[in-house]
Write the structure tokens for this entry.
Amino acid sequence: MCTFLVKPPDKGSFPLDHYGECKAEMVEYMRCLKANNSDQAQCKHLSKRYFQCRMDKRLMLREDFEQLGFHQADQQPQKQSN
């Protein structure tokens, strides 16, 4: 008999956004990913905005952005060099 040890996510579970309270932020982030060939670095400022919305709406625990992997440089979109 094979048994598996199930480990919960590091940050735990969080409520789904059933009422679409942060849908606009999520859609903006997804559009950015599509426009930038899924290059998350180009859209990190939008993911930060999404997390801020979730914290403000109590859809996740308030967390220091440094703990979520964001830094001061993540405030604005990165400039692409050609």
